[in-house]
């Protein structure tokens, strides 16, 4: 049977003290790439974290991959089928690239030593870092670290991939490679991509969600967003 790859949110609200970071968010996302847009502070990172880690904090309902994250056994399943690339990935600088990914593989319970090592090699090749596997993290450039973070998110071949501003720090050629890789992955997984890069959106996203002050202000196809933007121009007061 085809696994359920939907992400459904109903009335999700998250607060930091008195500040409301997410305000009654309803979403229904399926396979392919959904672009998550919005100015700084709109709530994109909070939404990513809410899907990736704080699954049951705050109010509202979340259903990921057909599973209920408030139930411990289902949450374990979700964690295994989910890959998360956080905004400013934090690494152990003294680890080698290989050791770091192997450690992540242990945390993800990806099996015994042999299975883990095979998986680490696979993802290192996927992001073009296999040759640097013995380099220590602190010796890698910003772009390489970003690719290492992507490799970590790709371990276990996730059904749900959450990428928070993944192309920051990549040079133009790496950006193109990144887009090619994500478009291949998105054929059979659900990808949520937070970005300020219009090229990423144009190349990858079949669905767009815009947040503003924690609310969903647009949810639909990229063409409809463009039409709306054009509408604002033509319907404006003019000159
Ligand atoms: P950016 O594009 O800058 O990453 P964002 O859309 O990801 O922005 P969030 O980081 O989710 O936005 O922030 C949403 C709101 O919550 C902002 O008003 C922010 O100041 C606030 N916020 C985020 N994290 C915290 C925190 N740990 N403590 C207090 N307030 C926070």
TrEMBL record:
Keywords: ATP-binding, Nucleotide-binding, Transport. The keyword Ubl conjugation does not apply. One of its GO terms (molecular function) is ATP binding. It comes from the Bacteria. Signal peptide: none annotated. Residues 7-238 form the ABC transporter domain. Belongs to the ABC transporter superfamily. This is ATP-binding cassette domain-containing protein. It comes from Nocardiopsis changdeensis. The chain holds residues 3 to 241 of 298 of the full protein.
